[in-house]
Amino acid sequence: MPRLDQLLASLGYGSRREVSDWIRDGRVAVGGAPVRDASRRADAAAVRIDGDALDHPGGLLLLLNKPAGIVCSHDPAEGPSVYGLLPPRWMRRNPPLVSVGRLDKETTGLLLITDQTRLVHRLTSPKHKVPKVYRAVLARDPPAGTEEVFAAGRCLLPGETAPCAPAALTRVSERVAELTLVEGRYHQVRRMFAAQGCEVLELERVAFGPLKIAGVPRGSWKELPINSLDGF
Predict the structure, then answer these.
(1) Catalytic residue positions?
(2) Which of 33, 92, 140, 229 could be disulfide-bonded to 12 (CB atoms 3.0-4.6 Å)?
């Protein structure tokens, strides 16, 4: 079990010095009894601050509907970030919150954010081939035969020597298509359509593995159980 000061600092409540002051002031209780020793070890489920249970001591997994115009970066120099949509305390957690892969600035839709490092590695590892579905609004319909080129793994992107892995293209309506990928190359969807002579005007990720964006408003998120993607 962790020390109280380490536990509270890791959950973003403040620096170890700040939370140690709270403990000495009697604001922290374990099992209903105030504790004034910052080195006391305790189960997170038994800890209360000012009578309130700890904020997600078991970790966070969020499904966020990313708006256009913001980045998936912690670097303020890159502009407004998806992390600015979340409670400030969560930004002080350790391990930190990170996105599972990235969406470029103008791409919208499903973005997973978590502090579970192993989950990030598993979902982004090429060997796991987690499917991701993107809906694209195109400047023109893809030419005949595009489905076969993508499905056969014959789409070669400019400047690359290895073709993209097989991908499934579904025509939704005029100039709207969905593309299911198991890779995550740089700007891959836009580049795959460009290789077929189609400019992508709008792009949204609508599914990630078994998870779908439907029902989550743009700019909002919902919390998921940490084990939501177990076995996937």
Answers:
(1) 104
(2) 92
What pTM did the predictor assign? 0.93
65 and 114 assigned to the same domain: yes
- Answer yes or no: do 141 and 113 share one domain: no
The pLDDT confidence band at residue 126, using thresholds 50, 70 and 90, is confident
One-letter amino acid of 114: T
Are 95 and 85 in contact by the 8 Å Cβ rule? The answer is no
- Classify residue 38 by its DSSP letter: T
CATH number of the domain to which 162 belongs: 3.30.70.1560
Amino acid at 137: V
Q: Spell out the residues 6+ positions from residue 47 whose beta carbon is closer than 8 angstroms to its own.
A: 4, 7, 8, 28, 29, 30, 53, 54, 57
Give the CATH number of the domain where residue 45 resides: 3.10.290.10
- pLDDT one-digit tens code per residue, 77-100: 999 999 999 999 999 999 999 999
Look up the domain containing 141 and give its range. 131-208
The residues facing 114 across adjacent strands are 61, 98
Q: pLDDT tier at 127 (50, 70, 90 boundaries)?
A: confident
Place 228 in a pLDDT band, splitting at 50, 70 and 90: confident
Position 125 pLDDT exceeds 90: no
E-strand ranges in 70-220 read 98-99, 108-114, 132-138, 168-173, 176-181, 200-208, 211-212
Question: How large is the greatest C-alpha to C-alpha distance in the chain, in angstroms?
Answer: 72
Are residues 36 and 147 both part of a single domain? no
First to last CA, the chain: 30
Please check whether residues 70 and 117 belong to one and the same domain.
yes
